[in-house]
Design brief:
The chain is an alpha+beta fold. The chain has 5 helices and 9 strands; from the N terminus they run βββααβββαβαββα. The protein has a single domain, classed as 3-Layer(aba) Sandwich (Aminopeptidase), CATH 3.40.630.30. The radius of gyration is 16 Å and the shape is globular.
Length: 192
């Protein structure tokens, strides 16, 4: 179930279109509300963990200041106090084309436990219903089967590969390109 609180939501005011979203076992909160912490960065960044708390705070502040048109959300549990699970958000939106890319990162201990699936459903639904998007896309690495499953559960389909575009652990990997269109999502929602 999706709950959104924003009496002033509009498609043109991307950052302010909602304050908090709760779905399943998770809550989304905008990065800009001050809850994002260095520990959260370390738990969800995966590849690049800042060496110090000061650097983490600096990177987070810089990211929030420079990406005013992109939405970024901390994914938290509904527990009290909430536990940071990861982050998610659409970025690189092209208003003329009504298209955006989604990025998601989960802490390792939360992968495969349904948090990614919950988060993808919420952000895709908001992208189509609140932001008026026509297409949502993402890249996933073939060594991330839990991610592929979560994306497929949210209606994404593989549409191609960018060959040998990612160097990891001493070898090249293809990027798997997946997307979902607004009419596909509408059909998917009625089946789910």
């Amino acid at each position: 179930m999706l709950r959104a609180r924003s009496p002033t939501a509009t498609r043109s005011s991307s950052v302010s279109w909602f304050v908090c979203v709760a779905c399943g076992r998770t809550t989304f909160r905008p990065w800009r509300d001050g809850r994002w912490t260095p520990a959260g960065w370390a738990a969800t960044s995966g590849w690049v963990v800042p060496p110090s708390e000061a650097e983490a705070k600096e990177r987070i502040a810089e990211w929030c200041a420079n990406d005013k048109d992109d939405l970024g959300f901390a994914i938290e549990t509904l527990e009290d106090p909430p536990i940071l699970v990861g982050n998610i958000g659409p970025f690189g939106a092209r208003p003329k084309d009504r298209c955006a890319t989604i990025g998601i990162a989960l802490g390792r201990e939360y992968i495969g436990r349904g948090f990614g699936t919950d988060a993808m459903h919420v952000i895709v639904d908001c992208g189509f219903r609140e932001m008026g998007l026509h297409r949502i896309q993402l890249d996933v690495w073939p060594f991330n089967p839990a991610g592929v499953r979560a994306y497929e559960k949210a209606g994404f389909v593989e549409e191609g590969r960018r060959r040998e575009s990612f160097w990891h652990d001493g070898q090249w990997y293809d990027a798997v390109i997946m997307s979902v269109l607004d009419h596909e999502w509408a059909a998917h929602r009625t089946r789910s």
